[in-house]
C-alpha cells in the first residue's frame, strides 16, 4: 500500500472533516476552542483491574501532527467525494481554506508528560485553537494516546508482577499490524526492559533481544544432525549471549542435558553461559527441575527465560508455585526467582482482557466575545457528563512523599495559596471533602506546554528519561493502588468552584429542555 | 518518528537475524525450506466463539515484502550491535551477504486467497526458499495475517448478527495506533460496508462515512444558539446525507423532536432525510420510541444509526429486544429492524474478547540431497505438535454446494483420482473416517501461487472482488458453523499418507530421546 494518504492528515474520522465544513460555512471555523483528552475508567481485565495508568504516546502523536497538512493529494480525495446526487460534498471555498490553512500550526497543546502515572477523568492532553482544526486533530490524538497508554499500563503491571526481574517484549508476531512498533515503544516506557522487535529497538536506540526458535533445532535434525549440534552452532557464534531453547524435543530428557553439555564447553573456553528458555509445559515445574540440573552441573547463575502466554497473573502464579514447591525438590525458591527472565508476548502487546482504553476527547470551552465560555454535554448515561471549562490539574502529596490525589481546578484558581481546598467527587454530588493546607506536603501542577500556537516549546525526553519519570511516580503510589487485584481507589476530585460551574451548566441545559 | 528503520526489513524479531547468521556460519543459509502459516484455534470471545475465520492481510503482507531489503541503513544498525563484551554480534561476511542477497527475491509464496473462509491447522500461507531469508520473513507474515484475519473474522460475525443491514466501522479512535488502517481494510473484507476512517477509505477507493459529533451541538450551544441551529447548519450543507446525532441534550425530549423539525424543512425543499444516530442509553428502547415519533411525522423510511460499544452479541440482543417490545408501543419490529444501521467501533477493530489470533509459522520441510525432508517438533503440549511435509490443501463440497471439510494431503497425492480417501484427525490418533468418491460433489485445491521465486505471478483482486469471494464462501458454510454461540465444528483432517509420515517422525524423535 502507498500509505501517504492513509497515514497523512486524512488519518481521521470522516465526520471531523464534514463538521469542519459546517463550522466554515457558519463562519465559526477559526473560533478558539478547548478539547480535553481523558479516560473514564482504568483498564478492567476481567478477573483483575488496574489502579493506575502510565502515560505514553505523546511524542508519537506530536511528531505525526507536525508532519502532516492538507496537500494537493489529500484535497483531491475530498474534491472527488460526491454525495448520493452526485454533487461534491466539499465546496471549493472550504477546500481552498484547507489548502491554505489546513495544518496544525495554529494549535496549542498542553499535556501531562509521558511516563507519569495518570488517573480517570483527569485531562492528559489539551488542544486549544481553531475549532475546525482541533476537530480534525481529535481522532489521531485519541488513536495514538489510547493505544500507548493501554500498553504502557499493561507493561507496568507485568513488571510489578515480575518483582523487578527483566521483562522482554516478545509480541510483534501476534500484535496489531505495524502498531506493534508504537506498542513496543509503550512497553519500554511502562516496564519492559527490552523488546524482540529489531527495527523499533534500533530506531529508539536500544539493543533488541532474542534467543532462537524451534525451527533452528528442527533444521539441524532434518539434516541428520542433533539438538546438541544446533546448540553448539549457536553457542559458538554468540559465546556470551546464547540463550538455548530447550523444548523442541523434550525439555528435561533432551533440551536441558544438551544445554548443560554446551555450557560446560563454553565454561571450559572461559565464557559465562547466559541462559535457557522454557516455552511450553508447566513452566514453574520445569524451571525448578531445570535449575536443579543446572545447579548440579555447577551453573548456579544461569538464567531461565520463561515464555508462552505470560501475563501479570500467570507470572504471579508461577512465582507462587515456585515458592510452594521448590524446596520439595531441594531448590532454593528465591534464588530461582532471581534468575528468571520473562518473555511476554501477545498478552502485553494486545492488553489481554481489556482491548482498548476508553479515552475520549471532549469540547469543554469556546472563546467568544473576548471570553472563554464553558460547554457541556448531558447524556443518557450520567457517568458520561463531562467536566466543563478551562482548567488546571493538580497532584497532592502527603509528607511521606506519597501521592494522595489529583484534582481539577479552574484555570484561574491558585490552590497552593488557599487555606483549605473544598474537593467534590466528579460524578457523585453527595461526596465532598476538605483538604487543609496543613495536610498538603507538596502540590504539583501536571499539565505542561508542549506546543504554543504551533511552535514546539517542549524538549522530548529520551525513553530512558521517561522510564525514570515512571519509576518515580510508581514509587510515590501507595502500594494498595498498585495491587494487581482489587486495587485501592485513587482520589480524583473537582474544586468547589469548578463543580459549581458544572452544576450551573447542567441546570441551565435542563431548563432549556423544560422550556421546549 | 522516522519509521524507515522500524517499518523496513528490520520489522522482524531479532532472533530471526541471529538464527540467519547461525545458518550462514554453518553454510546452511541457502538451503531451501518450507514454512507454513496456520492458526490453531478459532477466536474464542469468552461467552461466544467463532466457527470459521475469514482470510485477510495477504496483499498488505506481500506488498511489504516486495518493498523491503537490507540496505546500508539497516545493515549499519546490525553492524553497531555489540555483545556484552563489546564485540560485534554480526560478522562482516554475514553483513556482506545480507547486503548482496538480503531481500525476498528468491522466495516463493503459496497462499489461500483473501476473503476465503479458513479453518484451524490448515496452511494459509506457505513460504519456500532459502532458510535464512524465510526465517527473517516469518515475523512480518505472522504480524500482518494474524491481525487482519482476526478483524475480518469479527467483522463477518458482526455482519451476520446485523442480518445483512449496513455495518459502519467506527473504531479508529480506540484502535491500535496506525494499525487501524490495516484493521479497517480487514473489516471491509469481512463484513463492514464502510468505515469512518477517511484516509484508508480514499486509499482503497471507498467513500468514508460519518455523521457528526456531540461537540458540534455543544459549540452551537456555547454561542447561545440551539441544538436545532446545529442540526439546520448540518442539513443545509449535506442535504441528502445528513444523519443527526440526537443525544447531546436529551434524546426523546430534544434530539428527536428537533431532528423531525429539520427533516420537515428538508422534505419541504424536496430532499429525502437520511437518518438519526443514537449513541447512548437503552438503544433498543430509544430506537422504538424514535421510530414511533418519526413515523407519526410521516418519516417512515428514515434510518436509525446505532452506536456505542456494539458487537455481534449486543446487536443480537438489540434485535431480540425490539422484536419483543416494539409491538407494545405500536411499532412494527421488522420495519424498524430493516431501518437500522450499525456503527461498530472498538469491539470490532480490537476483536473484543479475543485479542489475537494464535497463528504460527512452522518449518515443515527442508530440501537436501535432491529431496524434501519433513521436519517435526514435539512439544510439552501435544496439541502443538505440527503437521510435517510439503502438502496440498483441499476442500470438499457435498451436492447441495455446502463445504463439508478441508483436508491436508502430501504434495504428491491426487485425491480427486482416489476411490476413497482415508482421513485422520490432526491431533486425535483414534479418529479416522473414510470419504467415498460418491460422497464428494466437488473437490477444490485451496493454495494458489502468489510469488514464484520472487516474481509476483498473482493479480491482487480488488476489495469488492474479495468481498464477493467471502460472500460465496459464507453461503457455502452450513448454518450451524456460522452460529454465533457454540458453533458446529467444521472438519479438518489429514490424509492417511500424511498422517503416517507424522507418526513415523514422532516415533523416530522419541526413539532418539530414548537412546540419549
From TrEMBL, chains A, B:
Stretches of the chain forming a coiled coil according to its record: none
Name of a matching Pfam family: NAPRTase_C
PTM comment text: Transiently phosphorylated on a His residue during the reaction cycle. Phosphorylation strongly increases the affinity for substrates and increases the rate of nicotinate D-ribonucleotide production. Dephosphorylation regenerates the low-affinity form of the enzyme, leading to product release.
Reaction catalysed by this enzyme: 5-phospho-alpha-D-ribose 1-diphosphate + nicotinate + ATP + H2O = nicotinate beta-D-ribonucleotide + ADP + phosphate + diphosphate
A single GO cellular-component term on record: cytosol
Keyword terms of this UniProt record: Glycosyltransferase, Ligase, Phosphoprotein, Pyridine nucleotide biosynthesis, Transferase
EC number: 6.3.4.21
Enzyme class: ligase
Domain of life: Bacteria
Pathway info: Cofactor biosynthesis; NAD(+) biosynthesis; nicotinate D-ribonucleotide from nicotinate: step 1/1
Domain Nicotinate phosphoribosyltransferase C-terminal: 390-502
InterPro entries recorded: Aldolase_TIM, NAPRTase_C, NAPRTase_N, Nic_PRibTrfase-Fam, Nic_PRibTrfase_pncB, Nicotinate_pribotase-like_C
GO BP field: NAD+ biosynthetic process via the salvage pathway
An example molecular function term from Gene Ontology annotations: glycosyltransferase activity
Keyword Ligase: yes
Domain Nicotinate phosphoribosyltransferase N-terminal intervals: 10-146
Family (UniProt): Belongs to the NAPRTase family.
PANTHER family according to UniProt: NICOTINATE PHOSPHORIBOSYLTRANSFERASE
Function noted in UniProt: Catalyzes the first step in the biosynthesis of NAD from nicotinic acid, the ATP-dependent synthesis of beta-nicotinate D-ribonucleotide from nicotinate and 5-phospho-D-ribose 1-phosphate.
Record-given protein name: Nicotinate phosphoribosyltransferase
Organism in which the protein naturally occurs: Candidatus Omnitrophus magneticus
